[in-house]
Design a protein that fits this description.
Elements (H helix, E strand, L loop, with lengths): L3 H13 L3 H5 L2 E9 L3 E4 H14 L3 E10 L2 E9 L1 H5 L5 E11 L2 E9 L1 H21 L1 H7 L9 H17 L1
Parallel strand pairs: 1-6
Antiparallel strand pairs: 1-2, 3-4, 4-5, 5-6
Length: about 170
């Protein structure tokens, strides 16, 4: 049986290869994935939307500095993706990321964007959303209803188009 660290690294490899079903195979059907202060997704279908989004956005995760703490595997991480790149963010850091397991499946992930990186992302989101409200109000209201990002393949493609238009206009 793989160790918890080996499971997380295998998940990272599937995620980075944009193998959605492969990435999902490492999660419990009861997966709970939370980005501290931003959102929580529960169940394989909601997490599938995140993986679909990340595949379209060419997300690349890197997990480092693993340690066990209170029955959880913790690490730091980085992410690059097309959304960040288009708005001028080279990469973001997650500190910490906490994984909890149910047998050999990941049951719960809690990640927190490093504070300085969260401020960069917030500034970029606000700039793009303010611009889009003037140019494409219906599109931005559909992509971010009540301030909450919609994920999934279709929404990621729409975001890419919106970001390309924003980049050309600014």
């Amino acid at each position: 049986m793989k160790s918890q660290k080996e499971i997380v690294i295998a998940y990272q490899e599937a995620h980075n290869a944009h193998d959605i079903d492969g990435a999902l195979s490492y999660f419990s059907p009861k997966i709970r994935f939370g980005m501290t202060g931003l959102w929580v997704r529960e169940g394989l279908e909601e997490v599938r939307e995140l993986e679909e989004w990340d595949a379209v956005m060419s997300s690349q995760l890197g997990f480092i500095n693993f340690k066990m703490r209170n029955q959880r595997l913790e690490c730091s991480g980085t992410e690059t993706n097309d959304w960040f790149a288009i708005v001028g963010i080279k990469q973001i850091r997650y500190e910490p990321i906490k994984f909890e397991f149910e047998g050999d499946k990941i049951r719960h992930i809690r990640a927190q964007i490093a504070p300085k990186d969260e401020m960069m992302v917030d500034r970029a989101v606000n700039e793009v959303v303010r611009w889009a409200l003037d140019i494409y109000p219906n599109e931005i209201h559909d992509l971010v209803p009540r301030g909450v990002f919609k994920y999934g393949h279709k929404h990621a493609l729409r975001w890419k188009k919106l970001l390309e238009d924003w980049k050309q206009a600014t």
